[in-house]
Amino acid sequence: MDRSSRIKGVLAGGSDGWEVFHRSRAMIAAGVPVTELTIGEHDIRTAAPILQEMHRSALGGHTGYAAVPGTDALRDRIAKRAEERTGVPTTRDNVVVTPGGQAGLFAAFMAVCDPGDAALYIDPYYATYPGTLRAAGARAVAVEARADHGFLPRRADLEAAAGGAKALLINTPNNPTGVIYGRETLEEIAQVCQDHDLWLVSDEVYDTQIWEGAHLSPRALPGMAERTLVIGSMSKSHAMTGSRCGWIIGPEDIIADLIDLATHTNYGVPGFIQDASDYALAQGPAFEEEISAPFARRRALAQRVLSTQNVVRSVPSQGAMYLMLDIRATGLSGSEFADALLEDQHIAVMPGESFGAAAAGHVRVAMTIEDNAFEAALRDLCRFAEGRASRAA
Length: 393
Known about the structure:
about 45% helix, globular, Aspartate Aminotransferase, domain 2, 2 domains, alpha/beta, seven-stranded mixed β-sheet, 14 helices
C-alpha cells in the first residue's frame, strides 16, 4: 500500500535535522557519557506547586473531555496576559488552546493556507518549520536572513518572495540564533504583509527569555491585529514542556474556525493540564523570571568563556535559551564540527545546517545544563575548535 503524497512530502526527501541528537541519545543508551547541549529542555522540572495543582484538578474529577477551545478560565487568563503585554484588546474569543506550540503552528497553517499556497519562513529556522508547512499542505519557501546582516530578515528579500504567497512565519526571540527582531525589522515585516496581503504567524514561545532590548509582538503594530496569529506555549516560560499546552491568539473569526479544526483533530487539551496552566500563569512575571534566570546567568558565563579565545565567535544572544556559535575559523561545516565534537569530546550540539543554509558554519548550543558543567563543556568546545583551527591553518 502506498502512503499519501502529503505524508511522504513532510521532509521533502531530506533530513529532519536531528541526526546528532539521535546519535547522542543512542550513545547515552549504550552507557557512553555525553554532555547534551542539543534540545531546548530545561534542566529543572515543572515546579512542584504546578504539579500539585494538576494533581488536585485530576483528583477533583477534571479528567473527562475538556472544553475543546480551552476552558473559559484559561482562555481568559491567556487573553488578559496578552492584552497587558501588548495593549491590544483581547478576549477569550481571540484564543484557542492547543496541545503545545507545535500543534498551534500546524493548526495555524491549516487555517490560512490552501494546498499548494506558498508559505514563507525565515532561514535560519526552528527545525520543524518547513515540515510543518508542508504537512499543512503549503509550499514552504525560505527567505534567507544572512549572518552578515545579524540574522535579521531584510525587507528587499521578503518583497522578492512575497508575490503570490499566502503567509509568513517568524520567530522572535529567535530559535536558533537568539536574535530579537526590533521595532524597525517588525515594522518592515508588517508593511510587507499588508502590501502583499499576507497572514503573519508569529511564534513567540520565547517571549519571557529576553536578555537585551525588549520583545514586541507584531500583533501590536498598526493594522496587524487582524492579520496576525500569535503562537504561545507554557513549555519555555513555565518549564512545562511535557504538559503540551499552548495557544493561538488571533481574530475572532479565524479562532472560531480553529476551534472547529480542534473538534475534528485533537478534541482539546486535558482539563487538569489546563487548570495547572491557569494556575502557573496566575503566578505572574516574577515566576516567569525565575524560570528564565538560569539561561540569563549561563549566557553571561558563556560571554566570559568566549572572550578568552578568538576562534569561536558568538552571534549576539539577545533572547531564548541558546547560543549560535560561528565555528567557520575551524575550516569545518557546522555538521562536520558537531559530528567530530560528539565523537572526540562526547559533547552534543546542533549543527547550524539543521536550521537552514543561512546557518551553515555555525552550531547551536542549548544552555540547558548546570552552570559548572555548562562552563566546562563550553571550554572544551573552544579548545577543540582551537585545535581544529590550528590544523586548518
